[in-house]
Amino acid sequence: MAAELLYNVLFLCTGNSARSIMAECALARFGMGRFRAFSAGSHPVGKANPYALDLLRSFNYDVSGLRSKSWDEFAQPDSPPLHFVFTVCDRAHGEVCPIWPGQPMTAHWGADDPAAFVGIEEEKRRLFRRVYTELENRVKIFSALRLDLLDKLALQERLNQIGRTKLSEE
Fold first, then answer.
1. Catalytic position from the list 21, 48, 55, 89
2. 2, part of any domain
3. Which pLDDT tens digit goes with each residue over 109-144?
């Protein structure tokens, strides 16, 4: 029996401080050992958002190695070949991306920007939790796909559908 391929997945956002980092953590946890998750930003802010880190800690994630980093780190010739690149913010989705090693499949999985929210702390924390849950839901759907059974066109359509998946309003 052949060893199963380990898929490299990069989550992109402009600042790489919240959404992309939360998605990276979710895939690392729910990817069932089939995926290696990374995150980066087109204009990284230099540090992870403290609200994102608090939320991830509350879900028992190890946040010690998380950092805000440039997408340039993943566009180098010696970078791991990427299989998938997902933008999680609208600004990164509209930017011209580098040429990624491995010619990955791409999709836009946009989510509200909790780091930009201005308001009381309780509302901010609630927004971070909602955005994390939305991203986690998408990651769970993605990680459950039988990638070996989908041709490239069908897989691209599923990736796009996942990006349109929202939480049901309660």
1. 89
2. no
3. 999 999 999 999 999 999 999 999 999 999 999 999
Is 1 domain-assigned? no
In a domain, 73, yes or no: yes
Radius of gyration from C-alpha coordinates of the chain: 15
Beta bridge partners of 12: 40, 87
Domain count, the chain: 1
Q: What are phi and psi of 37, to 5 degrees?
A: -100, 140
Question: Active-site residue among 28, 45, 97, 155?
Answer: 97
From 10, 12, 13, 55, active-site residue: 13
- How crowded is residue 40: how many other Cβ atoms within 10 Å of its Cβ? 24
89 is catalytic: yes
Domain membership of residue 107 (yes or no) is yes
| Helical residues (DSSP H) of the chain, grouped into ranges | 19-30, 50-58, 90-94, 121-143, 152-163
Asked about 25 being catalytic, the answer comes back as: no
By CB atoms closer than 10 A (0-12, 13-18, 19+), residue 63 is middle
pLDDT digits 0-9 by tens, 79-96: 889 999 999 987 655 556
Residue 13 is a catalytic residue: yes
Place of tokens 């980066």: 40
CATH classification at residue 111: 3.40.50.2300
Boundaries of domain holding 102: 7-163
